[in-house]
Amino acid sequence: MKKYIISLLSLVLLFSACDLDIQPQSDLTFNGFWESEEAARAAHVGIAARHRDFANTFFTMGEMRSDIWGGLTIEEPYNIELINNDISISKVYFSNWANFYGFIHNINDFITNVPNITFKNEDDKNHILAQAYGIRAHVYYTMLRAWGDVPISTEPLVEVDLEALKKPRSPKEQVMDLVKSDIAKSLELFGNSNRKWLGKNIYWSKAATLALKGDAYLWSGKVLGGGQPDFTEAKNALASITGFELVPYNKLWGEDNEENNEFIFAFDYQQDQAGNYYASFTGRIVDFNPLFDAEGVSAKDQSVLGDGVSVVAGGANRYGPSEKTLLMLDDKNDNRYNTFIRLYTNDEGHYPYEPSDDTYKASVLKKFLGSIYDDGQRQNYNNVPLYRYADVVLMLAEAKNNLNEDPSAEINAIRQRAYGDNFEDYRFVNGNQASNRKAILDERLKEFIGEGKRWWDLVRAGDGIVFQELESLNASEAYKIYYSISQGMLANDDQLTQTAGYGN
Fold first, then answer.
1. Which pLDDT does position 309 carry in this prediction?
2. Long-range contacts of 11-17 (CB under 8 A, 24+ apart)
3. Among the four 5, 130, 203, 281, which has the fewest Cβ within 10 Å?
């Protein structure tokens, strides 16, 4: 059985004739595979694993173009052109639709065949099908936000017909209709069940679908013009999520806290199972040992982290927070001040942060530092959340504000956790829609650094906010909200057209 699973889930090689990353096969669904509950369960695990394989793509798409990154690094920085929104027909990112269509084929195959399999417990079958619909909705929602118009494929490929594989880009409104339809189907199949599969947050759940619904309907309402009906759907979906809570920060991050009650859905990383891309946020001992943190403590001193382990071991410091980010987090009353460890060349102490301070060298993202293992190296096996309850709370605030309702209860819930005993000095008071929106965006920036949210947040806010917040993008380049596609894709598929605004 494992051989079949390996074969089924390996259908991800680029098929250049249509730029759908499906390997040509005479029988892409492997006759005889879909015959047992065992096969369905194995394929379900495979879909979860493939979803995790795209975690870096989700993060990069959702954050790298924002105002969070672009500051100093020790190593040569990654994705600097993307950070600067330097996108054109010759500078194409995530070509071949980021290889999402191979994964979509796997999901389509699953959705088509699993209903025909008899399960000992039909509720289990409905649950894993609900997960598949929710994940497909998330993938298409990501593609919609990234490219706008994209080809739609909802049926598995059985016989390869090169011409039939070519598909035009469907309008973004139709893509959103598919996202909404898959969300509705996912919720129908989940029914009244709020259980986590195997009791774990690393599998998609009803709460994850509801969070996605709130997210997607906010986007549809603001970016696609759906307005109040969509905002109301978002509000109702988000308000219906129960059983989660805002967890103290010291119980939220790290491998020992992965089953915390704030994570709704997280990508699973385990030692010796999969590599975590967050090593790019840390660095090497040889680089950091000569430096000091903002309090003047030597990076060699184990007290820098306060947990009895050294600041770094392994990794490469290739992503640096912008000055804007460092200034936003420069309040010691805010627990999120500790999102980064700022490193300097001397031990004089460096608070508050001064942009002109030439002794500042780099920062380390503290959320996903990982752990020191027996070989003395720090490894990043932290689970990474896609949705956590803080996201739900702040999206609910956004939905309320878009409906001209008071979002202060939600904003203050986030601030109370952030400021603790000092909360009363930071209590939010309801204002107009513009000031409320700014407050929500600021809280989201500080809350979700490293979690792939900020770029999507700025675009979703509408009203040109993304151009106001970013120095790297202006309103005359509004077409750059969506990615270009490559000349190779256009040459190989005569039904494809370039993203509007980029020319030919």
1. 53
2. 11/102, 11/105, 11/106, 12/50, 12/99, 12/102, 12/103, 13/102, 14/96, 14/99, 15/165, 16/488, 16/492, 17/162, 17/165, 17/166, 17/492, 17/493
3. 5
